[in-house]
Amino acid sequence: MQISPLYLNGEWVTTGSARNVTNPATGEVIGAISLAGRDTVARALDDAHDAFSKWRQLPGRSRGGYLNRIAELLDSRKDEIARLITLENGKPMAQSAAEVALSADHLRWFAEEAKRAYGRIVPNQVDGKRHLVIKSPMGVAGAITPWNFPLLLAVRKVAPALAAGCTVVLKPATMTPLCAVAFAECVHASGLPKGVFQLVAGPASEIASELLSNPICRKITFTGSTEVGRQLIAGAAATVKPLSLELGGQAPLIVFDDADLERAVEGALIAKFRNTGQSCIAANRIYAQRGIYNRFVEAFVARVRQMKTGNGLDPGVEIGPLIDREALDKALAHINDAVERGATVLCGGTRIPPETGFFLAPTVIANVPDGAVCLSEETFAPVAAIRAFDTEAEALEQANASIYGLSAYVFTQNLDRAFRCIEALEAGSIGLNDGVPTTSQCPFGGAKQSGWGRELGIEGMEAFLETKHVAMRLSAG
Ligand code: NAP
User: How many angstroms separate the Cα of 157 from the Cα of each of 32, 160, 210, 213, 357?
Assistant: First the structure.
């Protein structure tokens, strides 16, 4: 079996230890990744620091040129990399292909943004003084990413960091490191100067400890669970390390009586079941107003029943396996908890064969009562929990009753109501009659315990820039 190497200072490095990567649809080992310890991470940070002084001096246009070349290389290998995503993550092939395409789009957006790290000149307030506000790259950034969008979420950090003039050490999730290796191959083929981008893998807490304590690492950008986010916040206190945190979500999706039913059903399907429900912006809680509740539930369940579950490589599959046994057990526990409290399973609700994979039939649970765990915790599975509401105020109160604030969805055709909802909802991104709000050009991130900062859009590069004020005293002519 092939052991994939790490990418360190422009070289492919195989270490003495490795960890297998398995296909969650079949349980088969599909590869392995070399593992590194803290020393390797420290060396990578040193090399990234050496590379930083030249990389930051390049004009934004030149840095953007590299990002465009990486995007072209991703495009040229899109089928193979999509297949790799499906093999290590399990998602259906069409969704893997979309992930590669959106990753290339992110790279191209930040290739353009690299030219636009604008500062400003502030009119003088005192005679003889001038004020400049300038932007400069923070330095070496450490990036830690999860398994659910293994390519996309790495690119979402690496592209803006490189555009800003930072250098990056990436640690992908242990369960899905092979896409990151494929990405590193594209980086290598683009001719990016050595040390500007590096890939490490190994024990997460060891790698994080080095990134947190090493003064060379000037920024950590993390996507993952709120639980690990809290640990990073605690660890960053000693060095006051700047953090960008993209954490968990528990999105509400509200369907009002005046919604376009078909749109609401299609929007809820994609918001809930994309990526087999393993998305931070997945609609975990669906609130349907009493007047549309029965029609919505009937149409929604009819569509969910049609969804084909299976190996993501098979044609027509819309629901793949969950990532591992733990994820499956958690989803089943959420379903059982809701049922014990009085909810009704309208479809799905059980594991489906083969036993070698972690397949859960797409599930709809109706009349989910207060206190059900799936109303407060991320289920991260193809399980839709639905309940009815009467008034707009009640829907908004329930939607905001969460420690999370990553995303929310509203389906209504009433413009006044739409504005009231988007202003009241405590979420970083809102889909209004739209189940897929994310785009390269607009900021993405969470309120409350869903994180700190924003990725994508102009805010995405800002996260890797320091703002400096320069006051100049000029002598009179
Ligand atoms: P996770 O367990 O927090 O892991 C995410 C990453 O953190 C992985 O690379 C993991 O490494 C690493 N990690 C684990 N323990 C760590 C520690 N003590 N210190 C530093 N890093 C550590 O999350 P996950 O289960 O992979 O991902 C699912 C979660 O991510 C969900 O909560 C989801 O909502 C959230 N998410 C958020 C966004 C967003 O943009 N807001 C996007 C996607 C996912 P190992 O793999 O080696 O353990």
Answer: 24, 6, 19, 20, 31
Residues at CB less than 6 angstroms from ligand 1: 144-148, 153, 171, 173-175, 204-205, 208, 223-225, 228, 231-232, 246-249, 280, 378, 406, 446, 450-451
Report, as residue numbers or ranges, the catalytic residues. Answer: 246, 280
Predicted TM-score of the model (pTM) = 0.97
Give the count of beta carbons closer than 10 Å to the beta carbon of residue 32.
18
How many angstroms does the Cα of residue 426 sit away from the middle of ligand 1? 23
Using pLDDT thresholds of 50, 70 and 90, give the confidence band for residue 449: very high
For the segment 325-380, what is each residue's pLDDT rounded down to a tens digit? 999 999 999 999 999 999 999 999 999 998 899 999 999 999 999 999 999 999 99
Which residue segments constitute the domains of the chain, with CATH numbers given?
A: 3-247+450-470 (3.40.605.10), 251-440 (3.40.309.10)
- Residue among 169, 222, 228 whose CB has most ligand 1 atoms within 8 A, to mutate: 228
The values of phi and psi at residue 354, to 5°, are: -80, 155
Mean pLDDT of the chain: 97
